[in-house]
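Box 3.1. Reading complex inputs
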Amino acid sequence: MITNLAVLPIVIPLLAAIIASFFPKKLRVVRIFTQVMMVINVLVTAGALWYVQQNGTVVLEAGDWMAPFGIVLVADMLSISLVLTTNIIGVACAFYAPKSLSQKQEEFYFYTFFFLLITGVSGAFITGDLFNLFVFFEVLLMASYGLIVLGGEKIQLRESIKYVLINLFSSMLFVTTVAFLYSVVGTVNMAQIAERVGEVEQKGILTTIGMLLFFVFATKAALFPLYYWLPKSYIVPNPVVSALFGALLTKVGIYSIIRVFTLIFVYETSFTHDLFIWIAGLSLIFGVIGALSTNNIKLIIAYNIIPAIGFILIGIGVFNETGFSGSVFYLVHDMIIKAALFLLVGAVAYLAGTSDLRKIHGFIHYYPGLGWMFFIACFILAGIPPFSGFIGKLLLLKGAFEEGEIAIAIIGLGSSLLILLSVMRIFIRGFWGEKDPNIRPNRRVARGFVFPVALLLFFNVLLGVGAEWFYPSIESIGEYLMNPEIYMDTVLKE
Amino acid sequence: MLFAVFLPAILAIFIPFLSKWKEKIHTGYFVLLAPLAIFIYFVRFIGKDFDTVMEQYSWIPSLQIGIDFYLDGLSLLFVLLISGIGALVTFYSIFYLHTSEKLSHFYVYLLLFMTAMLGVVLSDNVFVLYSFWELTSISSFLLIGYWNYKERSRYGALKSMLITVFGGLSMLGGFILLSIITNTTSIQAMIEQADVILSSDYFGWILALVLLGAFTKSAQFPFHIWLPDAMEAPTPVSAYLHSATMVKAGIFLVARFSPIFVMSDWFFIFVSGIGVLTLVWGSFMAVRQTDLKGILAFSTISQLGMIMTMLGFGTKAAIFAAVFHILNHATFKGSLFMIAGIVDHETGTRDIRKLGGLFTLMPISGTLAFFGTFSMAGVPLPFLNGFYSKEKFFDSSLHLNEYTSELANLLSNAIPYLAVFGSIFTFVYSMYLVFGTFLGKKQFDQLPKKPHEAPFGMLISPIILVLGIVVIGLAPFLFNETILAHAAEAIYGEPVKAHIQFWHGLIPAFYMSLAVVGFGIVLTISRKGWQSIYRFIPGKLSLNKAYDFILAQLENSSAKITNTYMNGSLRRYMVLILLTIVICCFTALGLTNGFAWDTSNLAPITVPEILIALAMATAAIATIFTNNKIAAILILGVVGYGLSLLFVVYKAPDLALTQLVVETITVALFLLCFYHLPNLTERIESKAVKSMNVLISLGFGVLMTVVAISAHNTKLFDTISEYFIETSHDLGGGDNVVNVILVDMRGLDTMFEIVVLGIAALAIYGLVKLRNKKGAE
Amino acid sequence: MEIITSILAGVLFTTGIYNLLQKQLLRIIIGTALISHGAHLFILTMGELKQGAPPILEEGLSNYTDPLPQALILTSIVISFGVTSLLLVLAYRASKENGTDNMDQLRGNENDY
């Protein structure tokens, strides 16, 4: 009975989505309903996390079809902590959405898409079946298509098309690759795939199939050189949608890479994982170059997604326990801070009426709350202690140095500086400066934006200052990823 | 100690409330309590029989990060400087900053800085040290940008932050390497393992990374460029952060780690080499400044270089002299900054070309300035502390260690000359500073304000500092064994006997001092004559230009690079993505011998299948060439229906039916949606584009085919399908296995497949209904 | 025969991608449709072709084709149908709104956002 815990984070938002779709026009009800449901979902997930931490991984065999024949849902520490992070971001977005969306956008099923996105993301984290992962990918992508076109503006439609096309292509590649893998190992259950790939030591075509799978995920994760679709399509929708995308979508991609390349394809690391380090380094470099290249505040944040993913990939590339812990820690940290930053610049752009940095000055004089939150967010992003980014970065760099990968560590340090520069430019040019007598501050609206962002930043600070409460669990995840047989044994009950 | 360190930060929380009454009580009075209390708390440690104290508080034990405070002679000296100068500066600021300013901001930043700086000098854990280190950079950034409506302030703030954070990050890299090699995060424990570190392969990296941190923070050449621009901060800040404390954090770091590094020749070459270069360059450039604070900034750079040089020597005498000068520099430079602030406050300008003859109007400030500058110049007057430290410097430069490498020997031979050369210019700018401001031509009509002596409160802090100059000068023995010897011991690692007495006699160093004064006087008098050489040396400008250039290039070239590939063209994106996949996967295929060819287990080929396949292939290729939209859509239909025929042939009846229905609807949809759109046009594209497209699509198609054939030919395991066929009837209750799989065994897939369809429906509904009518909405 | 179907699927991918690299929206969408056909054919090929009866249980028969790939294809067909329909409507709306169906003119520039 208790195994049903694993399905709750998927079912609750799904039901909420369906209910929300019944009365789209009753906005007041829907808003409160959404907020309440998200809070409930957070509590349930937190409970699940607690349970998993106490009693170990929860495996649910859907429809009681035993693994590896049916679909399994695997709530281990990694997946459930990511689901919890997702839901925390969801809460912040649920409170932010009414402030930034137009009434029309809300009426056209924003909340339904929103819940379905959460469903898809949570499902992707929890599932233990490769084809089912594809299905959840489609759920979250389809919800994201719904969200990105919401509003139907010219630019939105234009960028959405590119977004949909590239994701469609990678989805098709995904199913094909699953089929290839099925042909070789005769199963789609991830634990069993891992077991069987291990038995033959990843010989023959398997590495190539692994690479194809990597590129499928890398496209979604926006790694170099596959991220081109990301920056512009992430800034066209409403800020709350951008925040959801920036925080969740790419992270599902990188999560899948973590899962697959610590569980299944771990026998040719001298090729695959060395390649990852290269890709990580180039993602860092080109990501910060992108972030420095523009004066559009939303675009600056969007580009900053890419180096973050690069950081996470370093941990997988160096392939040691410290690196894995670092990746997981950084992943959780980055999900939250990206959401916070997108919400922040969204608020700034909303209040300023433009996202062109050249036209924004002296904002801190009118909106000190937003200003100081942004200031702190910059340091969180750049990994300055005592905030969450620092712990993640410290672990990743340590992991890299332990393997003697000096070059990537130096690139990591250098790009931290440039990341800081890219966001500090916003602070110095946009928030500092002379008061503009023409601006009539809209403090009432600004106040509405403060709470959700503050909530997210609170978690960032907590993760950093209170690292002792979280790190041991994350360290155990690193250890767990280092020993994939634990996962196989738990799922296949051997 | 924990409370002492965090006291300022805690107080900072209340400052915004306390500043509500700033009209009645200047907020500074509240702030003053913090440094005073800390000073009193720590001053009791002073004494001959001082012993080190370690206090440990747990923070993140599982990462070996703990707030471990370690108080030895070195940190005690710094703590007293931070709190002592902090108290004086705060007191001074009460008169300097008017209550109409945003006092709460100023004092919150200042208090944060105090906590950060105390943390830096007391932390024994490298990562906690780094945390406080970055906090000093951040608070310095905020203080420099205090008047952020000024463009120069913003510029200076960003510059200082970029350079010091750059150094901080590289220092972090060094710390991580150190902690990996020694398996500890405590500095004291690292010092015990100095031989392990020295023999490590990464020693070069560690040395370079840690020293980068120190050099950037202490404004060593060529990173000194941030310090002059940091002078945009209010003068109390310049006196405190940018001369007495924060810039000495780099010195502190070098001193802290010198027990580890000092064995290496490279430590001497880097630290003394860069130090002496900074000393010469700083004093040389100070002479050309016209802003009082500019002169002081370059003078600070040069003095920091001097301390750095001495630390690099690594001899007992040099280390003692370095510690001594840290103390001295704080006294005379602090007082000089305050005087500069007073001059600025009372006359409205800091431009030395407009100033002159102020002594008659401001006799007290003038007298104080004379003490400060003469001490700074090292004029051989036995009651000035600067004279002693300079003499110690010369003395130690004549008694260096023996080095093995030639470069180090070359440097050690050159250093005495460079030291004298730099000191001559120190003398010149010191004289220039004081004579240009307080003596010389009176030109009061050029001043924005009518000058008069500063209020007495403002003078108290500099007076105390100047008293310090004289007391240290007359009675150095008071400080020798009580504090300086302990500090030197902490750096050297063994007890250091105190050296400084009231008068040393006619030693070689004394003649060097005399030479400095002699040449100095000549150059000071003839300054106008030779100042034109600065025109040939772009100096300050060129390094600043380099910084500006790098920053501008970062933006411009990154924009250029990004725009070359991020041009919004879907084709470009796809080409790059596909190329990457094709190249990497073929490489993987080749490297791992993945290709497999095995015809033994294939299904037989029959004519109808071949025909269907041929038809589908032809149709697929035809889609490329047709220029009629209706035709294209219908041809696409052929492929789809062909596929469903293949499903029939390959015993997949459910698929065939589904495909048939879906294909029909899709074709209808295609026709519907594209009815109104323009017809397909002739494809006009260059040969290069066309061949690229062909190449990539062929490459990808071949890749997929090759992988598919190989995958099919390496069936290594039985599939799990056997289980489905066996159990479908008994457990699933159905004979159509595919259906049972769909609704039962993999029911979750199907459920969410329906969800996907549902979302698509809603999204389409939204797309069609929610139109952005211009003006409406 | 598997080799032939693999090649056929490869051809579908090739032509699909070639169309995807074109400028006109309609061609691009036709490309995606071809790619999904190719993908489904690949999945089908990966189960063994014709190694038995259709997977509908009958008395006395024990040799059936692999049912799992078929189930996967079915799911995938339905999903790609959903995506294709959305894409079509989106393409229609985007080209109407922007006044062109040429992707080259749908690039956008810095000042748009």
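In summary: The helical segments of chain C are 2-20, 25-46, 67-98.
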